[in-house]
Amino acid sequence: MTKLIVGLGNPGDEHEEDRHNAGFWFVDALAKQLGTRFETEKRFSGKAAKAKSAAEDIFLLKPSTYMNLSGQAVGAMCRFHKILPKDVLVVQDELDLKPGTARLKLGGCTGGHNGLKDIQAHLGTPDYWRLRLGIGHPRDLAGDGRPMDVADYVLRRPLQEEQKRIDQSIENGLQILSLFLKGDTQTAMLELHSKN
C-alpha cells in the first residue's frame, strides 16, 4: 500500500511563515520525524520525500506551483505512483477553525479553499482525506472594526500565541498519524478531535 501526504502552502522564503503554509509546516515536521528529506522533483512540480512506515511506502509532497495550482503536483504524483484518492491525505490551513484546532475528514466540500478545488479537479473526486489545521478567521480579530481581507490574513505570519496553538495542532496531528496510516481512521479522528 502506498500513501501520499501532501502539505499545502506557497513556495519561497517570503511565504515561509505565512498562515497559508500550515500544511508545509506539518509535512516538514513529519519528514523530520521519519528521518527523510525533501528533494526537488520537477516531474511532480514540487518537493518530494519518501519514507517507510510498517510495510507501507509513504510519499510526502510540497507542491511548488503556489496554492491555487496544487492539484497539478498531486495529480502527477498520484498518476505516476498509482496512488488512489482514498490513500491521499491533504494537510491544509483552515480559516473556519480556531488556531490549535485540527480536524480529520474524508471528502466534503472545498469550503472555498482554492488549493482543494484544484486537487479535486485533478483527482476527479472530492473523496480524499483532509487534515484541517485551524488558523482562525480575520473576522475574529479584535481591532478597529474594519474587516481584514482574507488574502491579506492568510499571507501573514500568525501572532506568537496563535503560532504556539498551531504548532500544538500539528503535534496532535502527528500523534494520530500512525493510526491513520494503519487504516484505523475512526480512532484517529476520535483521538484528534478530543484534543481540541
UniProtKB/TrEMBL annotation:
UniProt keyword annotations, A-Z: Cytoplasm, Hydrolase, RNA-binding, tRNA-binding
Site (Discriminates between blocked and unblocked aminoacyl-tRNA) location in chain: 10
GO MF, one example:
tRNA binding
Q: Which Pfam families match?
A: Pept_tRNA_hydro (PF01195)
Instruction: List the GO terms this entry assigns under cellular component, sorted alphabetically.
Output: cytoplasm
List localization entries: Cytoplasm
Catalysed reaction(s)? an N-acyl-L-alpha-aminoacyl-tRNA + H2O = an N-acyl-L-amino acid + a tRNA + H(+)
Q: According to the UniProt record, what class of enzyme is this? A: hydrolase
Q: What is its main location?
A: cytoplasm
Could you provide one GO biological process annotation from this protein's UniProt record?
protein quality control for misfolded or incompletely synthesized proteins
Source domain of life:
Bacteria
Q: What is its EC number?
A: 3.1.1.29
Which residues are the active-site ones?
20
Q: Which residues bind tRNA?
A: 15, 66, 68, 114
Q: Where is this site: Stabilizes the basic form of H active site to accept a proton?
A: 93
**What does this gene product do?**
Catalyzes the release of premature peptidyl moieties from peptidyl-tRNA molecules trapped in stalled 50S ribosomal subunits, and thus maintains levels of free tRNAs and 50S ribosomes. Hydrolyzes ribosome-free peptidyl-tRNAs (with 1 or more amino acids incorporated), which drop off the ribosome during protein synthesis, or as a result of ribosome stalling.
Its family remark reads:
Belongs to the PTH family.
Q: How does it assemble?
A: Monomer.
- The protein's name in its UniProt record: Peptidyl-tRNA hydrolase
Protein's organism:
Polynucleobacter sphagniphilus
